[in-house]
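Dear support,

Our group has been running a series of protein-ligand predictions, and this particular one with zinc ion is the one our PI (initials K.S.) wants archived with full inputs and outputs. We had some confusion internally about which version of the output was final, so please treat the block below as the authoritative record. The input we submitted was:
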Amino acid sequence: MRKESYDFLSRLVAAPSPSGYEQPAQRVFREYVAPFAQVSSDVMGNVLAFIKGGRQEAPRVMLIGHSDEIGFQVKYIDDNGFIYFGAIGGVDPHLTPGQRVHIHSRGGTVVGVIGKKPIHLMEAKDRETVVKLDSQYIDIGAANKKEAEQLVRVGDPATFAGGLEKLHGDRVTSRGFDDKAGSFVVAEVLRKVAGAAKKLPVDLYGVSSVQEEVGLRGGTTSSYTVNPDIGICVEVDFSTDQPDVERKHNGDVCLGKGPILPRGANINPALFDLLADTADREGIPVQFTGIPKATGTDANVMQISRSGVATALVKIPLRYMHTPVELLSLADLDNAVKLIAATLYRIKDKRVFIPE
Ligand SMILES: [Zn+2]
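Confirmed final output from the archive:
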């Protein structure tokens, strides 16, 4: 991966963006794509970047990746200054105790830790069970409620601390790859096609959406705004090459073996064929899965927007989804960018996506 792209990825995942509070990440996206795309934002907080194609009445293509990440929200501060919180999106209560968190408040970042009873003091039966999220609390070091309230307000969002870090080879870890990896791929496709000598045969919209983790909300409104003929959603997917994930659930998909192309009701068969054939022609590795229902992604709401959209999903294999140590391969990101960019040049006529 190019250094500038890696730096962009690093800034994007470092910027806090729990659902409903995405603008720090959206600012990073906006700033990156502004030199080569026409950028606008909507009232939901979605960022839309447009590149005009070289043809009259060209098909409208929309790419989407969501910028929001899971997180927490301050709900209650007790008399001793301990902060109780709710989950933004699918937070696993198994892994929150003992973590460092950042509360994003008016005055900036407040560092805290999620406290936990020492193991010595736990009863045997409690070692077998999870402490409910409702009973977990953040300690910011405040002596009492008054001190805590000077730093933190009810409603402030919080995230796990920590950003991008390199592991062995091309593997990296961060919180928030779900789905800032998708936003990243969308931005990189825009950069690539904007810089290419050949003009696109389509009008292209790249959307960094919001509020996906709390009900596909930004994807719903931005699909309505863009009104695309064709849509490609870039999301993360369960890599099944970790010891405790069953291959029976998501097939045999691994890190580093390329983006995943699912088939199923949510995927337009002709668009799937075009992506798979392009991968084949260009020598880009891809993997395949079956999703026999509406996917839990922005591709779902995009497909059934207005009178329907020819939709596909390009997914990035990811280990440890919704943990602070999500893990992926940079090559899979690069290959997703290559695949989508090459596919865009092969879209000529929107009518070929109507099944017959
Ligand atoms: Zn996601």
